[in-house]
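For concreteness, we quote verbatim a single protein encoded this way:
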Amino acid sequence: MKIIKSNSSARNIVTSFAKCTIAALFTLIINHKLLVTSALAVDIGAEYNSPVKNITDMGGLVSTVAGNLYLIAGVIVFILFLWGGFEYIRGAGSDDRDAIGRGKKIIFSAITGFLIIFVSYWIILLIEMLTNVKIF
Protein backbone atom coordinates (compact mmCIF):
# COMPACT_ATOMS: atom_id res chain seq x y z
CA MET A 1 0.00 0.00 0.00
CA LYS A 2 1.21 3.39 -0.89
CA ILE A 3 0.41 6.24 1.48
CA ILE A 4 -0.57 9.39 -0.32
CA LYS A 5 0.55 12.51 1.48
CA SER A 6 -1.61 15.55 1.12
CA ASN A 7 -0.19 18.68 -0.30
CA SER A 8 0.12 21.01 2.67
CA SER A 9 0.42 24.15 0.56
CA ALA A 10 -2.89 23.40 -1.19
CA ARG A 11 -4.49 22.77 2.19
CA ASN A 12 -3.13 26.08 3.49
CA ILE A 13 -4.54 27.92 0.46
CA VAL A 14 -7.98 26.38 0.96
CA THR A 15 -7.90 27.12 4.69
CA SER A 16 -6.80 30.68 4.06
CA PHE A 17 -9.54 31.18 1.46
CA ALA A 18 -12.16 29.76 3.85
CA LYS A 19 -11.03 32.06 6.65
CA CYS A 20 -11.11 35.10 4.36
CA THR A 21 -14.58 34.17 3.10
CA ILE A 22 -15.93 33.73 6.62
CA ALA A 23 -14.38 37.02 7.73
CA ALA A 24 -15.86 38.84 4.72
CA LEU A 25 -19.34 37.40 5.33
CA PHE A 26 -19.14 38.20 9.03
CA THR A 27 -18.10 41.78 8.23
CA LEU A 28 -20.95 42.22 5.75
CA ILE A 29 -23.52 40.88 8.21
CA ILE A 30 -22.25 43.06 11.06
CA ASN A 31 -22.18 46.15 8.84
CA HIS A 32 -25.69 45.46 7.62
CA LYS A 33 -27.09 45.01 11.13
CA LEU A 34 -25.17 47.72 12.98
CA LEU A 35 -24.91 50.57 10.52
CA VAL A 36 -28.04 52.69 10.39
CA THR A 37 -29.10 54.28 7.14
CA SER A 38 -31.01 57.54 6.99
CA ALA A 39 -34.02 55.71 5.55
CA LEU A 40 -34.32 53.75 8.79
CA ALA A 41 -34.02 56.78 11.07
CA VAL A 42 -36.91 57.08 13.51
CA ASP A 43 -37.82 59.65 16.14
CA ILE A 44 -37.44 57.27 19.07
CA GLY A 45 -39.21 59.50 21.57
CA ALA A 46 -42.38 59.69 19.49
CA GLU A 47 -42.36 56.17 18.08
CA TYR A 48 -41.26 54.05 21.02
CA ASN A 49 -42.38 56.19 23.98
CA SER A 50 -38.84 56.67 25.22
CA PRO A 51 -38.54 57.79 28.87
CA VAL A 52 -35.88 60.31 27.84
CA LYS A 53 -38.52 62.61 26.37
CA ASN A 54 -40.01 63.01 29.89
CA ILE A 55 -36.83 64.64 31.23
CA THR A 56 -37.74 68.30 31.10
CA ASP A 57 -37.05 69.18 34.72
CA MET A 58 -35.49 67.74 37.87
CA GLY A 59 -38.64 65.73 38.67
CA GLY A 60 -38.55 64.00 35.30
CA LEU A 61 -34.89 63.10 35.77
CA VAL A 62 -35.46 61.69 39.26
CA SER A 63 -38.54 59.82 38.06
CA THR A 64 -36.70 58.20 35.16
CA VAL A 65 -33.61 57.27 37.17
CA ALA A 66 -35.47 56.16 40.30
CA GLY A 67 -37.97 54.07 38.35
CA ASN A 68 -35.20 52.14 36.65
CA LEU A 69 -33.23 51.78 39.88
CA TYR A 70 -36.29 50.45 41.72
CA LEU A 71 -36.79 47.88 39.00
CA ILE A 72 -33.16 46.72 39.18
CA ALA A 73 -33.21 46.70 42.99
CA GLY A 74 -36.42 44.66 43.02
CA VAL A 75 -34.89 42.04 40.75
CA ILE A 76 -31.78 41.88 42.95
CA VAL A 77 -33.91 41.47 46.10
CA PHE A 78 -35.88 38.66 44.43
CA ILE A 79 -32.67 36.88 43.40
CA LEU A 80 -31.31 37.23 46.95
CA PHE A 81 -34.51 35.72 48.37
CA LEU A 82 -34.18 32.76 46.02
CA TRP A 83 -30.48 32.33 46.75
CA GLY A 84 -30.99 32.58 50.52
CA GLY A 85 -33.87 30.12 50.42
CA PHE A 86 -31.80 27.70 48.36
CA GLU A 87 -28.88 27.95 50.81
CA TYR A 88 -31.22 27.45 53.77
CA ILE A 89 -32.92 24.40 52.24
CA ARG A 90 -29.61 22.92 51.08
CA GLY A 91 -28.12 23.38 54.54
CA ALA A 92 -31.15 21.84 56.23
CA GLY A 93 -31.07 18.87 53.87
CA SER A 94 -27.39 18.13 54.46
CA ASP A 95 -27.48 19.10 58.15
CA ASP A 96 -24.90 21.84 57.51
CA ARG A 97 -25.29 24.58 60.13
CA ASP A 98 -22.99 26.95 58.23
CA ALA A 99 -25.16 26.80 55.10
CA ILE A 100 -28.28 27.39 57.20
CA GLY A 101 -26.63 30.42 58.78
CA ARG A 102 -25.56 31.76 55.37
CA GLY A 103 -29.10 31.28 54.06
CA LYS A 104 -30.59 33.13 57.02
CA LYS A 105 -28.07 35.94 56.61
CA ILE A 106 -28.84 36.30 52.89
CA ILE A 107 -32.61 36.32 53.51
CA PHE A 108 -32.18 38.89 56.29
CA SER A 109 -30.07 41.05 53.96
CA ALA A 110 -32.74 40.80 51.26
CA ILE A 111 -35.44 41.87 53.72
CA THR A 112 -33.26 44.77 54.88
CA GLY A 113 -32.66 45.80 51.27
CA PHE A 114 -36.39 45.66 50.55
CA LEU A 115 -37.11 47.88 53.54
CA ILE A 116 -34.48 50.40 52.40
CA ILE A 117 -36.04 50.46 48.92
CA PHE A 118 -39.52 50.87 50.40
CA VAL A 119 -38.45 53.72 52.71
CA SER A 120 -36.60 55.49 49.89
CA TYR A 121 -39.74 55.35 47.75
CA TRP A 122 -41.76 56.97 50.53
CA ILE A 123 -39.07 59.62 51.06
CA ILE A 124 -39.29 60.51 47.36
CA LEU A 125 -43.08 60.75 47.67
CA LEU A 126 -42.65 63.01 50.72
CA ILE A 127 -40.27 65.26 48.79
CA GLU A 128 -42.81 65.33 45.97
CA MET A 129 -45.53 66.49 48.35
CA LEU A 130 -43.33 69.13 50.01
CA THR A 131 -41.92 70.65 46.81
CA ASN A 132 -44.96 70.20 44.52
CA VAL A 133 -42.69 68.69 41.86
CA LYS A 134 -44.30 65.75 40.04
CA ILE A 135 -41.85 62.84 40.36
CA PHE A 136 -44.02 59.69 40.20
